[in-house]
Amino acid sequence: MVQSLNTKVDLAIDATSYLGIGEYGKIMIGNKAFEFYNDRDINKFIQIPWEEVDFVVASVYLKGKWIPRYAIQTKKNGVYSFSSKQPKKVLRAIGEYVPADHLVRSLTFFQVVKRGLKSWKVKLTGKKQ
Q1: How many other C-beta atoms can be found within 10 angstroms of the C-beta atom of residue 95?
Q2: By three-state DSSP, how is residue 77 classified?
Q3: Taxonomically, which superkingdom (predicted)?
Q4: Architecture of 9-126 per CATH?
């Protein structure tokens, strides 16, 4: 059995982890860590202590009305993507433990294309603008 890092749980909610194939489970946000536990296999879990969280990146659409996914970027182990039924509740609970300047929006499709075209232009001409 997996031992939780949290001593107090602020929020527990159904969620999906996108680490590889999408897996259903529960997210637990508490005083010490962000935790994801798989519904079917108890050996598949993710525990991220708050000290390890670098950024929380949210995909925001329709001026904040729809947040389909959010990702937690750690200092050493990469990026973990999740979605849940009530993402605003989850992000508010995370906001209590992560500084506000580390909660960011992801780039839009057009921003990614614009950056790609700029870098392509720089490669061709050899000049930065």
Answers
A1: 13
A2: coil
A3: Bacteria
A4: Roll (2.30)
